Amino acid sequence: MPRDPLIGLVGKPSAGKSSTLNSLTDATSKVGNFPFTTIDPQRAIGYLQIDCACARYGLSDRCKPNYGSCVNGRRSVPIELLDVAGLVPGAHQGKGLGNKFLDDLRHADALIHVVDVSGTTDAEGKNTRGYDPSVDIAWLRSEIVAWIRGNLMEKWGSIRRRHIAIKGNPVDTLQGQFSGYGSTAAVVARTLDKLALKEPLEDWSNETIDRVVNAFTDEKFPTVIALNKIDHPDADKNIAKIAKMQDPNKIVLCSAVSEIFLRKMAKQGYIRYTEGSEFVDTRDDLIADGDPDGGGLKEMDEKNKNRIENLKDMVLYRFGSTGVVHVLSKAAEVLGLVPVFPVRNTTTFASGANDSRAVFRDCVLVKKNSTVADVGRKLMGDAPIAYIEGVGGTRVAEDHIVGVGKDDILSFKIGRG
């Protein structure tokens, strides 16, 4: 299955980006038969949790994904992550690993900005106390905007003259400059539509160009803000400040270190824990609930018992979870991702594999406003498609927009080229 879109993780040194990446990719109970989690040192596979189509049809007991897993209708779908390194102030001027940072960034469809909300690391990731993490959010965006604006203004005179000479349209002219950021004409068109500019491109002022670059940045690099280290005593005041400054729908509170610790303890048989849950059961908890064997869990030492109890109080009960699972879900939300289930048979939902009873073996994530034809190209490449079937064998038009529960179960019938 194709693995795009690509979600980039950014964050200054010591913000917890590596811990967050590890907690997103170490889906210990979710990997199923997916053969790997690491692609190369900078790319990895995370697992996005979605509602599977099997639950819609009461077939959860027969759902056996080729990749990821499905438990009681809750499916973990592989999604590719990119570790974007080298974020420091002045990156657009080449400071730190600035050039590499920006070059990696251009490949991402959305960003997760991991922010140390404890305020215990400064702008360069060095230990301190009382640092204002809202500053990090502002300068990440300003670095991207300055990078794009600087590249555009460097050639603006030539761009403008060519635009006039060929009587170009703004979308084509800007896409010629923005394609290097992984943009498409559709992204540029949406950017300009939102601004509803009246003046022609050749008359744009510096202020208008600034507006265009800012709007393009928002459209091309939608960003989720992952406020990490929420269990630190100084985190609350910083969370409150940032919540007033940023769109709350793009903020996720998380503790990546807590998630990694809980999964490790569960894997070693000391606790029962499902990633994303607010509940942790220890041997003592289960004995108190009437299970004399404590669920077969191992006895913990006092240090780990105390750590688990503190983690429950400071993270799970206060915030509802460690937040890590919600980070990817929020990134998928800002991208408007739609899960589509390609099947061989749209009546039985089987894929024609050896285990004919298994349903919904595959799932692919597509971007919002994708048509049935877009899904076909993503799955089949240039293979000629004779026709497309939806649920129950009904024919589906190629220009239909896919959505959750709407033309999201499809069978592509190959024709002759």
TrEMBL record:
Quick one: a GO cellular component term? cytoplasm
GO MF annotation terms: ATP hydrolysis activity; GTP binding
Q: Which domain of life is it from?
A: Eukaryota
Q: What does the UniProt keyword field contain?
A: GTP-binding, Hydrolase, Nucleotide-binding
Query: What is this protein identified as?
Result: P-loop containing nucleoside triphosphate hydrolase protein
**A Pfam match:** MMR_HSR1
The secretion signal range is none
* Record InterPro entries: Beta-grasp_dom_sf (IPR012675), G_OBG (IPR031167), GTP-bd (IPR006073), P-loop_NTPase (IPR027417), YGR210-like_G4 (IPR013646)
Keyword Calcium in the entry? The reply is: no
Task: Give the source species.
Answer: Podospora appendiculata
Start and end residues of each OBG-type G domain: 5-274
